[in-house]
From TrEMBL:
Its EC number is 5.4.99.5. GO terms for molecular function: chorismate mutase activity; transferase activity. Transmembrane segments: none annotated. It comes from Lutibacter oricola. One of its GO terms (biological process) is chorismate metabolic process. The lineage of its organism: Bacteria, Pseudomonadati, Bacteroidota, Flavobacteriia, Flavobacteriales. SUPFAM superfamilies: Aldolase, Chorismate mutase II. Pfam families: CM_2, DAHP_synth_1. This is chorismate mutase.
Amino acid sequence: MEITKQNRKWLDNMGLDHPIVIAGPCSAETEEQVLKTAHLLKETDTNVFRAGIWKPRTRPGGFEGVGAVGLPWLQRVREETGMKITTEVGNANHVELALKADVDILWIGARTTVNPFAVQEIADALKGVDKPVLVKNPVNPDLPLWLGGVERFKANGIDQLGVIHRGFSAYNTGHYRNKPKWHIAIELKKEFPDLPLILDPSHICGRRDTILDVSQTALDLNFDGFMIETHIDPDNAWSDAAQQITPAQLDQITQDLKIRQKSSDKESFQSKLNLYRKELDLIDNNIIDILSDRMGVAENIGKLKHKENVAILQSGRWSDILKAMIETGQSKGLSKEFVEEVFKAIHVESINIQHKV
Ligand code: PEP
Ligand code: MN
């Protein structure tokens, strides 16, 4: 399915600059909280105000959102500040109510993107409606599911689309709440180059102190903007308190971010870059040659073992190789994780080849 420049035009049509900054509380709590936050955000680079009206909680019992009574609060934000407004929709009923309130942009949450029935229901409810839709990645690291979410809207004629990387849940997310998987976002961008790609560092980090770093990484990877949870009193927020920041902190972050040029046409830059790229191409070809040689040797070993009726997997030998290579790799500045991953892949392929003999 072709995602064309059409899919970016809505950003210009709405007067949204690069990078687009969507900010506002995780949840709309009270009219006062929404309006106070919005008026402070108006003084920052924020161009779209977000607030969750319906909150998909992983377990019941938490704050599930104020519901439709919050929609007029968002309308007041738009009237009083001029910012566009956006909220999450999770079913056809939410869509109907959000459209009645003329919400400018709708977003699909991570817990909805995992469910093709729900996405289809929302896409059907939006048929013939001229509103931008932002599709968050599903909670699990599944690129086709994310692509599928976008495609369901596209197939219903919804052309103003964007995607949001909010990280993925995993058994071990380290110091993240939801681990960023940059390669999945980049794969998605490769598939749909003209789709605006937005980062939600709040749900990735789950805390305040790492938002700037993660956001800078995204900018360096050519992301088009951010959605950052911002609250007038983060510590007392009714949801996601640990990750929300104040409008003043958001302002500081947008000032500290270094916006890189997508490319530079300076001649010296281009010629140096070309040289490096040629060098990389040569090295990559060498890697393929060496891997092919290695698999040739594995094949010979396989033949030998077969002749002598010896088992293919010699686990003692394999752990010796891995240990030695990790040490050698570290002495040359390569991380343990990287060497381990490369050699595991080589080992699996060697075993496959020996099986085939
Ligand atoms: C949110 O944006 O508040 C939210 C619920 O996000 P996600 O769907 O990414 O968990
Ligand atoms: Mn949230």
